[in-house]
């Protein structure tokens, strides 16, 4: 039985989104795992009558066709699944359905874009901020694989949750864990005390070794690394150098605007990463 029991996959009518669905099947294709496939059409508000009904039907048609195609695909893959078409704000509907269907993972795609920054107002950012469960973000044309898993560690309770989930996933998928901490110091501090990096690194090492030993005790291979610099940039650079297949991180969002901020490091990594990113919420 897989780590996740009921997975919500949110799709739209774009080509990239269908690719996300195909990759999501790799995560879902486990015994006793259910899938809920959701697409959200824009809500049309117009005058009542025949004209409205005709326009409304035309708006819904591409989404209905999409779900029919998805249903045919999932039936072929013999995956237990449910298909839903909603109207309204995508992020609200995705989060609402995750609650009502008791899902324990949401899978979203990230479209190809020339913009590096991840817009806080985007559907993906809002879903991550408000989701009660983990969110897996799959960049366009990336592959979902669990062999080499990077876990970002910053000694917070959020990263400890991420590590705990990585242990479960690592045991299930026989993964190798790469536990990475990044020391980020202000320029002024480095100027005044250049030895700080070494001092903090020595204090950090026993903490990482304890996590490594926890992994070893469960039969999971784990390596520890300490880097210096901008955390998000170092995480991305490290993932490229080590040919990491998936990045696992915690989320800092709690209430109000903080739900949207997620933690600037998580936000930036999702924005820049060409590999799937699992944001652990529960």
Automatic annotation (TrEMBL):
Residues 4-139, 147-281 form the UspA domain. Gene3D superfamilies: HUPs (3.40.50.620). Pfam families: Usp. It comes from the Bacteria. InterPro entries: Rossmann-like_a/b/a_fold, Universal_stress_UspA, UspA. Belongs to the universal stress protein A family. This is UspA domain-containing protein.
